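Sat 14:20. Reprocessing the chain from the morning session after the first attempt stalled halfway. Input below, unchanged.
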Amino acid sequence: MTTLFNKALDSIRHSSPDELWRQVDAAIDMDVDTVSAAMRKGAIGTARLRFLRLAEQSQIRVLERIDTRDAVRLAGGLPTYTVARLYERLPRKLGKAIVQALPEGKRRGVVVILNHRRQR
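Finished this time. Tokens:
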């Protein structure tokens, strides 16, 4: 993990801001492609695993860029806390579509988590 951070820092130190943003966009596109490819192949478990390995900001961007139907399918198997956390940062329309498509018990769990987080 430390090696990964050091390589990332080295690339930032030696890049112009424009080059850095091109690299970030390319990495995000690759994340979207990886998750989307697994979804197209019907490997929803693989897609979820790859999705969960992403940083939170990348997870949000993946959900924003894939088809809403695929986002709903992907989120349906995620941990309840993860869905609640992402819901707070997603565009309202997408977050609402994901939460409304969840099974009743999981949807209630997300609501409980969100209410608790808002009370803090």
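Residues 76 and 102 are 6 Å apart (CA to CA).
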